[in-house]
Amino acid sequence: MSLISGKEIEIIRPDIIVDDIEVVLYKRTMDPRMAVNTLKNGKYVLIIDYYSSGLMILNELKHQLIKKYAAQSFQAQREFRADFKELSNRLLLVVNNHQLKVKKAPQIGWFKILYPEIIEFLVAFPQVQGLNSSWQWYEKGIAIPVLNQKIHPFFGTYFPTRFEHLKLFDHWLKKYKGDKETAIDIGVGCGVLSYQLLNHGFKKVYGTDTNPNAIVGLENEIEKNKLNDKIALFHGDLFADIKDKTELIVFNPPWILASHQLEGMDQAIYYDENLFSRFFEEAQKFLKEDGRIVLLFSNLAQITKENETHPIADELAKGGRFQQELFLQKEVAPASKKTRRNQTWRDTEKIELWVLKLIEN
Ligand SMILES: C[S@@+](CC[C@H](N)C(=O)[O-])C[C@H]1O[C@@H](n2cnc3c(N)ncnc32)[C@H](O)[C@@H]1O
Q1: How far does residue 120's CA lie from ligand 1's centre (Å)?
Q2: Fewest 10 Å CB contacts: which of 65, 75, 126, 242?
Q3: Which atom belonging to ligand 1 lies closest to the Cα atom of 188?
């Protein structure tokens, strides 16, 4: 539990097993096919020698399932993924004193940070792989061109891997002539937009996010960087517990309309159909009379799906609340030759920056 802006926040962490359960022990001198059969029989397999033994079993499992679901159909691929997920999650490792209890295992600092109070537990191998790659990103950091600094994404938090929209926002901030007392950053994530706002002279930023891990992770970074009096964080939906009106609201929302129930990190990529109407309704209350909303978006949905509507254009077309002050578009650099074959739609993808103002009565 962390206490942020007066609220207790519980972070999301992978499920672990603390109870005594029956397991079949596995060493690499054994046949991985035996381990896969055990998983298929609904039992747990526990790796007790090397980390790589788990990788060998997962390879064997993949190999067998690829054969089983050889058809390229959507349905076959879905069943392949579901089976792989179910079976691989019965492959376990022991964590003792925040370390994996097998040889040649990666060091993963998340065990201590996410489970400080638990001395010994079992965790599924794929979860360990996810924790490991997240730890690598966190430790190394990600260089963000417009910031001249690295960000360190907390476990389970969205971070940008393409930067065109950040460059577009920076370009706009350079020309911005309005007040710079406060700004609100909705869906703050790792805080990239908030840092940009501070770098361009804003005195205070209020950031919100529905993802508790984003809020807890960014709070730690803010403390490390001594920015506590510059950025205030709130866990919750849209404007959460923010009280003040501001001259600037920025939102880099999810860009794709969801066709499934949203859970976890999905909320960074997919939006439910009410998100934008709720955002615009609320935004009216938090904007000073002369204030602006800046939204970063993309035409991704329009160019990949027919008849897809555009939530910002829709809001403006409906009228009544906001008017457009500015609209900037920037082509996304074509994908590299290597990845291009399957991604020709990226050639016409454009990043968008929308600036809206309240309609004067
Ligand atoms: C595309 S990411 C952008 C993150 C960050 N602002 C950036 O530009 O790198 C969208 C963020 O919005 C958050 N989010 C999604 N729905 C939200 C909502 N209803 N209220 C607050 N935050 C939300 C997600 O958890 C995610 O962190």
Answers
A1: 34
A2: 75
A3: 6
Instruction: Pick from 267, 275, 279, 352 the residue to mutate for probing ligand 1's pocket: most ligand atoms within 8 Å of its CB.
Output: 267
- 75 and 168 in a single domain? The answer is no
Among 211, 251, 263, name the best residue to mutate to test ligand 1's pocket (greatest count of ligand atoms within 8 A of Cβ).
211
pLDDT by position in tens, the chain (length 361): 788 877 889 999 999 999 999 999 999 999 999 999 999 999 999 999 999 999 999 999 999 999 998 887 888 899 999 999 999 999 999 999 999 999 999 999 999 999 999 999 999 999 999 999 999 999 999 999 999 889 999 999 999 999 999 999 999 999 999 999 999 999 999 999 999 999 999 999 999 999 999 999 999 999 999 999 999 999 999 999 999 999 999 999 999 888 888 777 888 989 999 999 999 999 999 999 999 999 999 988 888 777 778 999 999 999 899 999 999 999 887 655 444 445 455 558 899 999 999 998 7
Q: With a 6 A CB cut-off, is 250 part of the ligand 1 pocket?
A: no
Cβ 237 under 6 angstroms from ligand 1 = yes
Count of other CB atoms within 10 angstroms of residue 333: 11
Domain boundary among 95, 111, 138: 138
Strand partners, 246: 287
Residue 102 · residue 93 · CB < 8 Å:
yes
Q: Which amino acid is at 212?
A: P
Of residues 148, 232, 226, the one with CA closest to residue 182 = 232
Q: How many domains does the chain have?
A: 2
> How wide is the angle at C-alpha 342 spanned by C-alphas 338 and 343, nearest 5°?
90
Ligand 1 near 219 CB (within 6 A): no
Which pTM was predicted?
Answer: 0.92
- Based on the fold, state whether residues 34 and 77 are members of the same structural domain: yes
User: From CA 132, how far away is CA 290, in angstroms rounded?
Assistant: 47
The residue whose CA is least distant from atom 8 of ligand 1 is: 252
Which residue has its alpha carbon closest to ligand 1 atom 27?
189
Cβ–ligand 1 contact at 211 (below 6 Å): yes
CA-to-CA distance for 277 and 273, rounded, in angstroms?
A: 8
268 lines ligand 1 (CB under 6 A): yes
